[in-house]
Design a protein that fits this description.
Two copies of one chain form a homodimer. Helix content of chain A is 42%, strand content 19%. Chain A is of the alpha/beta class. The first copy, chain A, folds into two domains: 250 residues, Queuine tRNA-ribosyltransferase-like (TIM Barrel, Alpha-Beta Barrel), CATH 3.20.20; 80 residues, no CATH class. In chain A, strand 7 and strand 8 form a beta hairpin.
Amino acid sequence: MRALEFEQKSVCATTAARRGQIQTGHGSIETPVFMPVGTVGSVKGIAPWTLKALGAEIILGNTYHLHLRPGEARVEALGGLQEFTAWQGPMLTDSGGFQVFSLAQLNQISEEGVKFQSHVDGSHRFLSPETSMDIQNRLGADIVMAFDQCPPATATREEVIAATDRTTRWLDRCISAFKRDDQALFGIVQGGLHEDLRLAHVEALAARDLPGYALGGFSVGEAPSVMVDLLQRVTPALPADKPRYLMGVGTPRDLVEAVAAGIDMFDCVLPTRNGRMGTVFTSEGRLNIKNARFADDRGPLDPACPCRTCTTYSRAYLRHLFITKELLGLSALTEHNLFYYLDLMRRIREAITAERFPQLLDEVRSLWPLKA
Amino acid sequence: MRALEFEQKSVCATTAARRGQIQTGHGSIETPVFMPVGTVGSVKGIAPWTLKALGAEIILGNTYHLHLRPGEARVEALGGLQEFTAWQGPMLTDSGGFQVFSLAQLNQISEEGVKFQSHVDGSHRFLSPETSMDIQNRLGADIVMAFDQCPPATATREEVIAATDRTTRWLDRCISAFKRDDQALFGIVQGGLHEDLRLAHVEALAARDLPGYALGGFSVGEAPSVMVDLLQRVTPALPADKPRYLMGVGTPRDLVEAVAAGIDMFDCVLPTRNGRMGTVFTSEGRLNIKNARFADDRGPLDPACPCRTCTTYSRAYLRHLFITKELLGLSALTEHNLFYYLDLMRRIREAITAERFPQLLDEVRSLWPLKA
């Protein structure tokens, strides 16, 4: 068996949505799938048995963070990322590139790689296609991402072209440096908001016949409608027999739009980060539990939700937990939001199989307006 | 039925240890019992279903904190403390006295009560036997504590006498003000480290024929051996047919010593607070997970422990969670420590029934030396 097998199981007759299954060495994943983000090897506040019970099938870890702490050598010596984090299922690591550009103090970007300073201790570090592959090989996730250059939202067309070309050259260095045949390396399509650059990059990457492809550089400040338009034109050009991953996206509305465009995989910090800020996704829209109007509200967060948070606690109690800064509030709202996201993906998969995905798309569109 | 029934089921032939059962309107409690502390209505980081699974039978809430946020009127309107916190079992509230003396900015203590400023917002507040009873009646816990005056560890004998006498007068006002017959009011014995004052106060309180009695004013700075000596002489004087509660104590060693003296109930923040600080109680003694020697340790926190934390995570991973300040570390160590305490109480109860409590006492004494 190859490190990763993808099987397309059913397709929507109206949209480009498709249901499939990914087989990895640590188990199978039903797609379209949402991957909770476990930055340093832990989905903040949520135990692995809870992730399992919520229906999570694959967890993302961040190479940048894990490289800084505890370091890939330690994770490798401790048996790899799954053994280390006690998550028994499939995992994916990103390349570290996005965090180097967004979190670290950047010192220098060159053809060789990126010099930066750690946001933890200011130490000088270097990340390149080769070091990213080495780190990810040692971390040992099932899916590994190529080291790419994600240009800022403000980049000119010329800068985007330069970053896209470099990303292709870096991909070839990733392929050469990549060492493990029980891991699958995905390439990342860049090209900013330029349809022609995106399509050209898709073509360049598809020629490498990788086990999967991601779209990077979305949700970096552009209007959601711009992203959705572009996804509809670019996604179908990606190889149909490989999983397609839209990185770092998004809202519930973004997810259904991207599925309609043919995307199979998602990761995003929204459900977890928003949960810790007191904001939840519900069948009635978004709400922030800290709002004073919930102080005496005996009802659940979301009357339609069967999750443990909604069947156990009142809004009044959850608000009290946030006002008094109790830890339990953070995990309770995070758990609800993850349930919401994972349940939305379940509903999407079932709707595709039952040939009613367009109806679900309409339903989600009416609840979650696309922001301007 | 009265608000609370206590039945003594077996006694140790060698020590004053006893096993019993308390029946409340929200269920029964096997004694000796440890009550996890849920200060503002939540045991920090631990969901009620986890508390249940750990074997917790009764949770403590703090009147001082709940009075400040969310306020007793709100808790009452929301159905009382159990309904509000989603804890389905028995609960106990303290009187607020201890926190007023330790946490708040004290303005004035008089025969009428205590004027203080909230540590949350500086607002001016007043707590007295009558207001404490009113607050606790509205909160609605199964067991309610009398409002007492706990003298500081540095108090002179004359000051201790004055505080003890006032505590008796305040108890009578508590009894008069107390309104609900589905709650049980416990009296609190004071008297500092003076055996004669303690015994005299026991006699004064026993005359009130209350459903239970607590020993207050211990573990406030005295040497543990001094506390244990005094407990051995004072506890047997408490009515044998009522539950005996040692407030705010203590270490595993303190618990077995107090059980040997005849105590039935305990509460303490040690397992929860220490867990959040990275310190755990194990079958091999105490350890702090932040210690560098655990960085590559694949073993569990406690090799002899069957709790979820010990059967799921390595010390290396738990240390990583603390070093990176991940929420999961706080709840994982808290859960282990609560398991340790609740399991110790199970072992104590079983040992009393099986007539081998003295052996367990020796075992715990050799693992946990009494600090000087």
